[in-house]
Amino acid sequence: MDAKEPGNLIFVVGMTYDEMGGSHYYYVNDAVGNKVPKVNARTGKMLMDKLSIAINAGIVRACHDCSEGGIGVSCAEMAFAGGLGMEINLARVPCEKGIKRSDTILFSESHTRFIVEVPRTEKKKFRHIMSGITTGLIGEVKPEERFRVIGVNGSSTVLDAGINELKDAWKGVFGNY
């Protein structure tokens, strides 16, 4: 799951919905949500089959599920596990219509989503294999040890932190389970 090489592209595979009920984000913020993630077995099977093809073809350099903590935590875990930075743009995340909050996109725990690192040279091949599956090119791996998130408006930065700082925060919340 660790990020491998600066310049590689970061894709999200799967659709993001406003599904924050039971999320760790709400838990650590002492909030309650009523929209829990739903499973679509048919879409999930197709996504898994195509993602397996891409992995077996050697196109995918790293892959991490978006479970506890959603896109935000998954990308941060990849960055600090690889000792590399990452920049992601939430305006590029495929979402259900009507989501306007950066925190919802960043921390939704919608099922059957993955963060995937793909070399630039394999972008076209990856998209071809994943045709028919919702994907979004949301960012890239960076050489500097910073994690930057651009909000849903596409221009303002909602998070800019060192990966070691994020790792310490992760250990404090997620490392205790």
Task: Report on the architecture of this protein.
The chain starts with 8 loop residues before the first strand and ends with a helix. The protein has a 7-stranded mixed beta sheet with strand order 2-4-1-5-3-6-7, sandwiched between helices. The protein has helices at residues 24-28, 41-56, 70-82, 102-107, 123-129, 163-173; strands at residues 9-13, 62-65, 85-89, 114-118, 135-142, 146-150, 157-162. The chain is an alpha+beta fold and 177 residues long. The protein has one domain: Alpha-Beta Complex (Phosphoribosyl-aminoimidazole Synthetase, Chain A, domain 2), CATH 3.90.650.10. β6 and β7 form a beta hairpin. The mean pLDDT is 89.
Which class do the helix and strand fractions yield?
A: alpha+beta
Q: What is the share of helical residues?
A: 25-40%
How far apart are the termini?
A: 19 Å
State the major sheet: 7 strands, mixed
CATH superfamily: PurM-like C-terminal domain
Please trace the helix and strand order, writing H or E for each element. Answer: EHHEHEHEHEEEH
How much beta, percentage-wise? 15-25%
Q: Write down the oligomeric state.
A: single chain
Low-confidence stretches: none
- Trace the largest sheet across and list its strands: 2-4-1-5-3-6-7
CATH hierarchy class name: Alpha Beta
Give the beta-strand count: 7
CATH architecture: Alpha-Beta Complex
Write down the overall mean pLDDT. Answer: 89
- Tally of individual domains: 1
Q: Rg, please? A: 15 Å
How large is the count of helical segments? 6
* CATH fold type: Phosphoribosyl-aminoimidazole Synthetase, Chain A, domain 2
What general outline do the C-alpha atoms trace? globular
